[in-house]
């Protein structure tokens, strides 16, 4: 069904509240990881990836906050998100955006696999012709 304007606004506010809350949690976890690094402990691969993602999210938050702080600039946010889709921190992504990214990655991997398969087949033909 169609949502009323009030419901859409409430949903958007919940979305941004949850995004900031998740970013806060990620920041606290990342601070603990940095503390561990400073004391000579080694991070696992997963922890290192999470730390890098959180740092990137914090750097992406700076231009995003400009839209939140400057009055009426939030109306331009959809335009800038269309121009710069990676501008939002990862905690603010919707499920549809995550699925879209996964589909793009999968299609790129399939294209690469197809290319490699064709290359191997071509090499096999040349090898067969050389030996035959």
From TrEMBL:
Membrane topology, as annotated: Single-pass membrane protein
Any single Gene Ontology cellular-component annotation: mitochondrial inner membrane
Subcellular location: Mitochondrion inner membrane
Letm1 RBD domain: residues covered: 43-128
GO molecular function annotation: ribosome binding
Keyword hit for Membrane: yes
Keyword Transport among record annotations: no
Keywords of the record: Membrane, Mitochondrion, Mitochondrion inner membrane, Transmembrane, Transmembrane helix
GO biological processes: intracellular monoatomic cation homeostasis
One Pfam family cited in the UniProt record for this chain: LETM1_RBD
PANTHER family from the UniProt entry: LETM1 DOMAIN-CONTAINING PROTEIN LETM2, MITOCHONDRIAL, LEUCINE ZIPPER-EF-HAND CONTAINING TRANSMEMBRANE PROTEIN
Protein name: LETM1 protein
Organism, as annotated: Anseranas semipalmata (Magpie goose)
